[in-house]
Amino acid sequence: MQNSNNAAASSAAENNSTTSSNSLPPLPSLVELKQQRASTKGSITQIKNIVENNKTLSSTELECRLGMLDAYYKQVSYYQNQIERYCATDSARSDIDELYVSTKCLILSLVDGRRRQSYHEQTFSLPHLPSNRFPHLKLPKFDGKYLEFKNFIHIFQILVDSDSLLTSTEKFNHLLSCLQGEALATVKAFQITEDNYPKALQRLKERYDNDPLIFLEGIATLFDEPQCIKPDSTQLRQLVDNISALYSSLKSLGSHEQICDAIMIHLVMTKVDSETKRKWNECHDYTKLPTWLECCKMLDRRCQQLMVLAKAKPKATINQELQHTSVRKPFKHILMTKQKSTSQIHCVYCLKPGHYITNCPNFLALSIENRCQQAKQIQLCFNCLRKDHISTHCPSTYSCRMCKKRHHSLLHNTGASSNMEPLCEQTISPLSHVHTNALVPDETSARVKSVVLLATAMVLVKDASGTFQLCRVLLDSCSQVNLISESMCNALHLKKSRSENSLVGVGAASINIKHKTISTIRSRSNSFEAVLEFLVTKRISGYHPNETLSLEELQIPENLQLADPTFYKRQKIDMLLGAEAFFSLLAVGQIKLGENLPTLQKTLFGWIISGKHCSTKDSKIVSSHCVVSLDTINANLERLWQIEEPVHPPSVWSVEEQQCETNFQKTVALSNDGRIMTRLPFKGDTSTLGNSQKIALRRFLSMERRLDSNIELKLEYVKFMQDYENLGHMSMVKDLDLNSPHYFIPHHYVIKPDSTTTKLRVVFDASVRTSSQVSLNELLMVGPTIQNELVITLLRFRLYQYGITADITIMYRQFWLHPSDRNFQLILWLEHKSQNISVY
Fold it and tell me: Which residues pair with 592 in a beta bridge?
């Protein structure tokens, strides 16, 4: 095999997030430390020059400058210690000590003997230490779990924050070294300065202190305690101790009544359906603890809503749902239309009214092969069995219930055909890997899940500043090159050089490589270190394994140091080590875990685990990775099929589309300044809209907190909204009438770094439901598609000698909304925190 490459889709946002969580706490670079050392050393030289040039300084002034000298010396010594960690050959310490001694001797020589002796005793006298000193307490760690914050902040304030001998910069560094994960991301945006330490500590307290989520997480932890399987005093005692400690912690956060309410709500929400649970989370105000009465009120309102929906649903639709084990979602445009009466429903196969083809007894009596042939003759979509579109353009989000592929369940071949595909249409989806689906029956006819684990390891990689950062590597003995992902290369700030290479894998798939880099890898368990050359590629592989695996059947010995302790978790791959380094890493030692289980191999990185892993814990069809990316091939093939497939757009508009078009023709008009003005096409009663101001305000305040941690995004957001107001596309509401129907639209930002015009855009989300569980989008009709297909436009361009294209700037904002409907497009906004939140 030639050079190989594992490729899979991996978003840049996830890469940056994982890299930040795996990296060491941020420290100043070598250049910054040298600049700070030079600045502090200059301050000492300035004190020496002042004392030498002015012999008339009083004893008080000399003592003040002597105190400043000691403080500067302590500071420059700290910088020198940090510099020597990066560069052990730095020889500036002797010059610093000489400058300090000469300056201090000069000052002491000018102070009288009495003051000199008093100050000398006060400065250098050490406190008497008792003989029975206790060992130093270790600094606590905090990774973002709400229940652990009280203990962490209490110990941190005692050990670090209250220590008057530490500077604010030192306290800030200690704080960063104690934080991990989400907690570290909360304060990481602050620069390490004296002024930012109290701000960062306050931000951490606002994020985790006195938050109702602490209480709710504690309730959830009560139910996460493991069950005692057999009579065991140790397990029972541990369970009682854990529950007692949790109960005491909860009593410090809330009353006994609030604990009972939270337990009741947690139990009920584990019994309801996912949609009801989602609606409860939407209407729940996280600024205070929920009560059981609020939960009951929401559930009663949900029952009423389901009763109304059940009454409005036609009987034919109900019968159809009862015949299927899983309900297929209707199309988006069908959601917006009125329900058809039974007399309007007809079967496209037998042409009889009263039922669809999915309930047609004549169609159901056919064999799978004949159903496929009939669907092809009638020109039906193979995914939903409806006309006017093909399966590649099917708006339905559901597929076959048996194999989850893009065809209807009635067309699924239940015979012994390979790949479980329908006989009449083979649908290929654009995948990021080559997938091999397998179902392995055992003696009990249960499905066995088979996964092939690849050898992974966590290693230290040197970045541009000389600091080692943690990366996840894939060990591949069949690769002739070493690879590093582009996101990891940028995170390590490695210098890239031009390199024209072409990687060829299975099926002769080729990928062009334009850059390469050099870095040093180091083992976490021993002194092994190697300098390797890496080719830079956008992607190496997808998340491996495909899903988190269970460790119950592996039984890995506890005394082994694994190269990748989290090999069973679904994580990304940062680097690939090929045959150049693979065989030099192997060591003597191998453990086979059993039949159909992976093998442990000892390496210089630790014990790696690789091989086939069969489990009966899950019956899902799984995927195995191959080292060739077919993204481009699959995408091009799919585009080719879409272009060649004839599209027959519907010739008749639906009832809702006709009503929407009629509403537009009746309400459209020209304003005095020549702009087109229209009204919103409501299809329901606007009085059903509930309270939306609280939801919009909560989301706005949440977004403000995120923007406060990123000044650049904050400025971009403010600029975008200022343009809205300057162009006249939004205006402040002076007399707000909340008694009439209205709707507040929440808004947030979307970042697109590769955009050439606007990298940040503001999105207004009118699909958020109000307190009555109705959103603005649900009350509006959807009109027909009136523009031509893109293929028609391209063909028309080839018929003439010249073609003209034009772009209308912010086109959709050139149409104005009638003043009577502007109450349904209210937003909350403020530019500066010194202002009050206004309504626009």
Answer: 599
CB 576 within 8 A of CB 456: no
In contact, 69 and 106? CB cutoff 8 Å = no
Give alpha helix (H) positions in 87-136.
93-110, 113-124
**Cβ-Cβ contacts under 8 Å for 120 (sequence gap 6 or more):** 108
Place of tokens 């937003």: 827
Query: What is the C-alpha separation between 727 and 720, in angstroms, rounded?
Result: 11
pLDDT, tens digit, 9 for 90 and up, residues 610-637: 888 776 554 444 444 444 444 556 666 6
d(CA 283, CA 298): 8
Separation in Å, CA 654 to CA 252, 354, 661: 60, 19, 11
User: How many Å apart are CA 128 and CA 27, to the nearest integer?
Assistant: 35
Query: Is the backbone peptide bond immediately before 135 cis, with ω within 30 degrees of 0?
Result: no
Percent of the chain with pLDDT over 90: 10
Q: How many Cβ atoms from other residues are within 10 Å of residue 193's Cβ?
A: 12
User: What local confidence, expressed as pLDDT, does residue 209 receive?
Assistant: 65
Residue with tokens 């199309």: 331
- Helices (H), ranges, 365-472: 368-378
User: How would you class 293 by CB atoms within 10 Å of its CB: exposed for 0-12, middle for 13-18, buried for 19 or more?
Assistant: exposed
Distance CA 160, CA 138 (A): 11
Check whether 86 has a pLDDT greater than 50.
yes
**How is 686-741 classified by DSSP, letter by letter?**
GGG----HHHHHHHHHHHHHHHHT-HHHHHHHHHHHHHHHHTTS----SS--SSS-
Unique residue bearing structure tokens 């209490």: 154
Interior angle at CA 676, CA 674 and CA 678, nearest 5: 145
Per the listing, tokens 């909360």 go with: 186
DSSP 564: S
Cα angle, residue 65 at apex, residues 63 and 69 outer, rounded to 5°: 115
| Under 8 Å between Cβ of 563 and 603 | yes
